[in-house]
Amino acid sequence: MTNLVVHVDEPAKVATAISNVQNFLAARPTSTVVVVVNGPAITTLVTGAWKPLQQTLPQVEIDACIMPW
Predict the structure, then answer these.
(1) Pairing between strand 3-8 and 60-65?
(2) pTM here?
């Protein structure tokens, strides 16, 4: 088993991140993945952009990282 952390900080990178995670898990299906979303990409957590990943790959955890200002 391999563990992977993926960081996404721009909304434009969400589709690429999803594709990368799907490809990684296709090659290593027993692995776990944590996606850390921060910065401007936080807005994608409420748009449904991550739903395909969440619904089809239960071994993927999506976390938000919010820095208090």
Answers:
(1) unpaired
(2) 0.89
